[in-house]
Amino acid sequence: MVVKYELEKLGLHHTKVELGETEIMEDLSEELRDTLSASLKNIGLELLDDKKHIMVEKIKTTIIDLVHYNDEQIKTNLSDYLAEKLNHNYTYLSNLFSEVKGTTIEKFYLANKIERVKELLIYDELNLTEIAWKLHYSSVAHLSNQFKKMTGLTPSHFKNLRRKQIGPTGNM
């Protein structure tokens, strides 16, 4: 809605406005591109028109959607899933992501999974077995080992620390 408003304010017509992607009908002059970029920056967004960066953002968005908003287990491995979703060879996607972000797709994916585990631990609605199942870990031990490797804490230690920080009344 905010992006639509900014486009309309500048007199630009859009054919599509979705999460992370917008198509506009007009060809942008350099001046209009700069104005749009500044408008988006003011609301905390960034104009990407470099094809490499656009594809990297699509990879990130696809992974974030998969980890945070999709409870279905993918039927293939991550590389095949991304290649199919983004209509590109995985080697190309992987090399591009590493070049632009300085990390691998796998590390980005695992970091997002661990962040999701943290959220679910904080919400305290699911136990560790349910979290492992929800995030498609092969076992609680696998989740716990990966969590400890990436955070330095066990999931239960993390959960206990958060409880102490928040306190019994729910205040920090």
Protein model, in words:
It contains nine helices and two strands, in the order αββαααααααα. The radius of gyration is 20 Å and the shape is globular. It has two domains: 2-47; 54-166, Homeodomain-like (Arc Repressor Mutant, subunit A, Orthogonal Bundle), CATH 1.10.10.60. The mean pLDDT is 87. The protein has a two-stranded antiparallel sheet with strand order 1-2. The longest helix is centred in the middle third of the chain and has 19 residues, at 51-69. The protein is mainly alpha-helical and 172 residues long. A hairpin with a 2-residue loop joins strand 1 (14-18) and strand 2.
Largest beta sheet: strand ordering? 1-2
Distance between the termini: 33 Å
- What is CATH's topology name of the largest domain? Arc Repressor Mutant, subunit A
Shape: globular
CATH class of the largest domain: Mainly Alpha
Q: What is the CATH architecture term of the largest domain?
A: Orthogonal Bundle
Task: Break the fold down into its secondary structure elements and pairings.
Blueprint: H1 2-9, E1 14-18, E2 21-24, H2 30-42, H3 51-69, H4 78-86, H5 90-101, H6 105-123, H7 128-134, H8 140-151, H9 155-166
In short:
This protein folds into 2 domains: 2-47; 54-166, Arc Repressor Mutant, subunit A, CATH 1.10.10.60.
What keywords describe this structure?
172 residues, mainly alpha, Arc Repressor Mutant, subunit A, two-stranded antiparallel ribbon, 9 helices, 2 strands, globular
